[in-house]
């Protein structure tokens, strides 16, 4: 029932006192559609703890030179192609506010960690401010790995698109995504 109220509130806010022109009505419909898709995904998605337990904690701090890859003493972290510091300011569309992100996964499929950092090399923990998030299905190292790319898109990218991509989406709806794809935590490794 609470979800229905949130959906109706979203539509009402988007229409602004029912004075919506056709473009505004279409936008309200898109928000309602995305809210419904996000809610359906959220309810079907398992708790993230079993996936977090299969990922490595992010380094709490990295070099401000933002190397292409680095070792934390036990694992190699690679630059996230979607948010590389060397491509600033034309990068980080999925993590607005981050300066650079890195990825690590123990296996070629399954969960992976994505860690994002501010310009000073500090790990970011607030996903609404650009923090990295848990990947239920890691992003593949090679874009030609279409099976893994499809799994990552299905479990991680498309849900984010539905829940958070549109800046008009209510923060509470976007939070459903981050409840299932949290940023994890960080460890002070000796880098």
TrEMBL record:
InterPro entries, sorted: AMOP_dom, Epithelial_Barrier/Signaling
Stretch forming the signal peptide: 1-20
Entry keyword Transmembrane: yes
Cellular localisation: Membrane
Chief localization: membrane
SMART domains the UniProt entry points to: AMOP
Protein name per Swiss-Prot or TrEMBL: AMOP domain-containing protein
């Amino acid at each position: 029932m609470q979800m229905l109220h949130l959906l109706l509130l979203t539509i009402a806010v988007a229409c602004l006192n029912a004075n919506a022109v056709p473009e505004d009505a279409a936008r309200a419909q898109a928000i309602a559609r995305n809210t419904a898709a996000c809610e359906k995904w959220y309810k079907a998605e398992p708790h993230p703890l079993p996936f977090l337990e299969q990922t490595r904690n992010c380094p709490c701090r990295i070099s401000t030179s933002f190397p292409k890859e680095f070792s934390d003493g036990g694992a190699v972290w690679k630059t996230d192609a979607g948010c590389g510091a060397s491509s600033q300011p034309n990068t980080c569309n999925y993590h607005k506010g981050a300066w650079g992100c890195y990825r690590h996964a123990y296996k070629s499929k399954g969960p992976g960690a994505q860690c994002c950092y501010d310009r000073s090399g500090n790990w970011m923990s607030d996903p609404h401010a650009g923090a990295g998030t848990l990947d239920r299905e890691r992003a593949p190292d090679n874009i030609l790995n279409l099976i893994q790319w499809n799994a990552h898109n299905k479990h991680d990218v498309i849900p984010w698109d539905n829940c958070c991509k549109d800046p008009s989406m209510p923060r509470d709806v976007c939070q459903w995504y981050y409840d299932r794809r949290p940023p994890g935590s960080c460890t002070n490794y000796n880098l």
